[in-house]
Structures are given as C-alpha cells and as structure tokens.
Design a protein that fits this description.
The structure is a single chain. By secondary structure, the protein is α/β, with parallel strands linked by helices. The protein has two domains: 198 residues, Rossmann fold; 103 residues, UDP-galactose 4-epimerase, domain 1 (Alpha-Beta Complex). The radius of gyration is 19 Å and the shape is globular. The termini are far apart. The model has no long low-confidence stretch (mean pLDDT 96). Bound molecules: uridine-5'-diphosphate-4-deoxy-4-fluoro-alpha-D-galactose. Uridine-5'-diphosphate-4-deoxy-4-fluoro-alpha-D-galactose (UFG) binds next to helix 6 and strand 8.
Length: 330
Amino acid sequence: MNSKKYILVTGGAGYIGSHTCKALAQAGYIPVVYDNLVYGHEWAVKWGPFEKGDITERMRLDEVIAKYNPIAVMHFAAYAYVGESVENPGKYYRNNVYGSLVLLEAMRDHGVQKIIFSSTCATYGVPKEIPIAENHAQKPINPYGTSKLMIEQILKDFDTAHHIQSVSLRYFNAAGADVEGEIGEVHDPETHLIPLVLDVASGKRSHVTIFGDDYETKDGTCIRDYIHVTDLADAHVRALQYLENINQSTVFNLGNGNGFSVKEVVATVEKVTGAEVPLEIGAKRAGDPACLIGDARKIQTELQWKPKFSNLETIIQTAWNWHQNNHKKN
Ligand code: UFG
C-alpha cells in the first residue's frame, strides 16, 4: 500500500501552482510537479519531485502516474494569455482542452478519481450582476475563457461516465507573492497589472499604460477583484480535503468580493513603494470587462475558507518584497 499522499500537480512550476505546492507540503502531501517548463520555472519546484512533461503526452503521463500512484491531480497547466488566445485559438484549444482530455483519460485508466481544476472568472464573460456568483451565466468572450469552460463541461461528463470527482476553482485576479519570500510571480512576457506597475516603481519600465479610462466605473478605469496567491493556494488544499471526504463534484469562485480600479492599484503601489508611477492613457484592451468582482461566499461557507491577505496593500507589499529580492529571476 502507498501510504504517502502524492498529488500530481500539472503546471506546478508556474505562479499559482508553485504556491499551492508549498501549501500542499505544509498540509502533509507530497506534490509531484509535472510541467513542460514552457512558462514554468525549475527554481520554483521546491516541495517535491519534478517530472518534466507535457499534458498532451499520454505516454509520459502514464509513466509518471504509474511511478507515484497519486491520490489526486491538481491541474494548473494551461496557456493563460487572453489576447494571444484571440489571435491563436488553436494553441489554446489544443493545449488547454485537448491536453486536459489526455490527462483525464490517463487518470481514468489509472484509477485516479479526484481532480482540482484551475478555472477562471473569464468563463463568465461580461457579467450581468456584480458580485458574480457561481450560478451566473457563463458566456466567455475569448478563446481562453471558452477553453476553460469546455474543460468544466468535460469534467462534468467524466464524473457521470467514470466517477472522476472534480472541484473547479474559478479564480479572479491572482496577485501577490509568498509571504516568506520563497517564490513569487515571474511571467515572460509579463502582461499583468501589478508586476508591470512594480517594474515602473523599480525603474525597469518608464511608465504604465492604462487600458482605457472611460469605462462606466467610479474613476473610468477597470475594476478587478485581486486575491492573494497564498489564499488561493490554501483554497486548493481545502478543495482537496473536501474531495477526500465527500465524493461530489462542485465549483467555487475565489475572490475577495472587493473591487479595485486600475488607478487605485497604481496609487497603492505608489504608497507601498514610495515611488512615483508615471501613467499614460491608452486604448481599451479587447475583451476587458469593465468590472469583475467575485462572490466567494460559497467556499467560505462550505470549506470554511477565509482569506488572510485580502488587503490590497498587503497583496502589493508581498509582491514588492519578492520583486525587490529577486531581480535575477525577473
Ligand atoms: N491593465 C492596464 N494596463 C496594463 C495591464 C493591465 O490598464 O498594462 C488593466 C487591464 O485592462 C485590467 C486590469 O489592469 O483591467 C488587470 O489586468 P491583468 O492583465 O492584470 O488581469 P486580467 O484581469 O486581464 O486577467 C486576469 C487573469 C486572466 C483571466 C482574467 C479574467 O490573468 O488569466 O483575469 O478576466 F482570464
């Protein structure tokens, strides 16, 4: 019998995946990182074995699953650039949708019956109601969001047919870095607001371009619900424990229920860093809803999830600490 609780973590060398590996190890699991290193970083694998591989490679998946006999899969591996998904949808459907299908069939054939899936608020599209609850209509407006919604549907069908139970976690805007400074956000190319504004604060970029300032919001700029990556990681461990105890698939939003505008984010970065951040107003970015705020009461009630770092200043402070101490990786 295998008494060690191995968890196969696809995309575990990436931003959210690596923070979740740390949380898994702290909770007594052994995260086995399965990552093709296209966007992930080997230096971010610190809490368990690393197996290089792509989710579209069935033979490699078979090998790794047979080697560790994991009790569950956490599935982070995906392409996640919204703009690129509009220009090159094939890349997103092949990797995200087809790759997930290969992974699920491998799980089915090896008897791995539990999966936690990284879904997104991008599956909702332009919301009709704010805050957005899980039962809000899902009408994605870009191939990235559609690819994630298709996987949610595939998960339902694999539960019906093969009794593979899943928890889909629909993230709002992941941000911040490990409070102990061990890991943090490094994307190449970087497109996310907070790391870009921090680049300006540290002198690596000259200015930030605000994508539109005539939205129907309080200051005309887009509003997002920023959630600390460590709070996200904690929710994954709770979702896993839920599946260990209750054999029922479900879906949860993960946000803080607070919205901050782009200008408020910039002002908070200025406050935290003490630097001035020059701004330019640019065109709206295609596919950006004016306001996305999540209603996460369901996971708070059902899994007793309580965000510890919901304050925007704290989120930005942890990101700034990481940013300053890890220039070699940035
Ligand atoms: N923004 C700017 N200037 C920039 C970068 C971003 O004004 O240089 C704005 C965006 O328009 C948006 C906000 O800052 O209003 C946040 O943008 P991010 O790119 O940081 O995050 P997104 O909200 O676009 O994306 C996140 C996830 C995606 C997910 C999406 C769902 O990163 O994976 O939420 O809407 F699909």
